[in-house]
Amino acid sequence: MASPTDLPTPPATPGPSAASAPPRPAPAARPSLWSAHLELGKARLNALVVFTTALGFIAGSRSIQSPSDDFFSGVLWTRLLWTCLGTFLAAAGASAFNQALEARRDALMLRTRHRPLCTGRLTRTYAAALGLILCISGIALLVPLANALTAALAAGNVLLYVLLYTPLKPVSTINTLVGAVVGGVPPVLGWTAATGQLAPGALVLGTILFVWQIPHFLARCWMAREDYARGGFKMLPLVDATGRLTSRLALLYAILLMPLCLLVHFLRHAGMPFVVISFLLTLALLGVALRFAFTRAHPDARRLFLAGIIYLPILCLTLMLDARTPELERLRAVQTLADDPAFIDPGSEEGRLLNASLTTPVPPQSRPATQQP
Predict the structure, then answer these.
(1) Topology classification of domain 199-324
(2) Is 270 helix (H, G, I), strand (E, B) or coil?
(3) pTM of the model
């Protein structure tokens, strides 16, 4: 296996020389081998990937439930577990590939210099081999235990992360947007695993995750801009010395979260509890982003970064608990109007649904073939 001392040196133009690299940690301070593997697979970061995959699965399951299903009986929990495991393995494998490609640059940065490939606990060759095994294993699990569509999306996301996002980081500031696309895919994977198909609801969830990442990561990049420069990565704050563009983009994307959360309700995938809580959450995030846009100070960037960490889990949990079945929501709305149908146009869609609901029983909604356990 290749020794860490054999790592290729990055081009001289994007980053500083190796002489500026921080000193390597002493061997006595090295964590365990198990800890090294957790770091290699970015276990804490990929726990968020699993969480958002579960969000998509539960929301997708609720979107096709029949009237007789409750919250628990309407979700195929075994399939959810296999989907989360397959997604985690694929994400961990992609993270291992990422570190194998960026090991030399990571060694130059204060934030990443303790990673296992930088300290010599693991080698680049081993990391690449393990990454390949994990990616193949995760995708292979998804094919029979979820469906082929989910496996194909996972494979495409791995390739996007390894072959496009990672090489772009030292080349172009557009890498942040590409990385946000990668981060927006997990809830779509969960949705397709539950339903066997893409749907507008899945795309909206993915877009929410995409948009949320921009202010979150711009705030982090602003705080660590000197460290990114040390590693030779092209981040927006490095070409935006005043922070004016960085902070305004963070504010703009935070604003976009408001209509996206409302769109979830408009598509009848969530009720009023989600609307109220998401509105309050987004309003708080906007306040922090607005302050950062005015001050561009390190403490306010940190507040925005931490606000994003608080925002996402609460939003996701709220949607999980308040997820609805669109067709049943439409029928309930029409049946509510049945008490006073005088204001309903008989030729409208609501009028036709009302007439159908009053003259024929509503059959249970059938599940697609992929929903069979």
Answers:
(1) Four Helix Bundle (Hemerythrin (Met), subunit A) (1.20.120)
(2) strand
(3) 0.82
DSSP string, 183-199: HHSHHHHHHHHHHSS--
What share of the chain has pLDDT > 70, as a percent? Answer: 78
Query: Among residues 1, 93, 85, which one has the least CA distance to residue 40?
Result: 93
Higher-scoring residue by pLDDT: 67, 87: 87
User: For residue range 189-237, what is the model confidence (pLDDT) as tens digits?
Assistant: 999 999 999 999 999 999 999 999 999 999 999 999 999 999 999 999 9
Question: Residue 57's closest CA among 77, 35, 36, 42?
Answer: 77
Q: Which amino acid is located at 83 in the chain?
A: T
Of the candidates 230, 115, 109, 101, the one whose C-alpha atom is nearest the C-alpha of residue 166 is 101
Over residues 92-101, mean pLDDT: 96
CA 156 – CA 93 distance, rounded (Å): 13
Bridge partners of residue 323, in order along the sequence: 270
Structural domain boundaries in the chain: 39-198, 199-324
**pLDDT confidence of residue 65:** 81
Half-sphere exposure of 222 (CA within 13 A, CB side): 31
Alpha-carbon separation of residue 303 from 42, 180, 209, 296 (angstroms): 23, 20, 19, 11
Domain 39-198: assigned CATH number: 1.10.357.140
Amino acid letter, residue 178:
V
Residue 37 and residue 338: Cα distance in Å, rounded? 60
Q: How far apart are CA 340 and CA 96, in angstroms?
A: 61
Token digits for 30? Answer: 């090295």
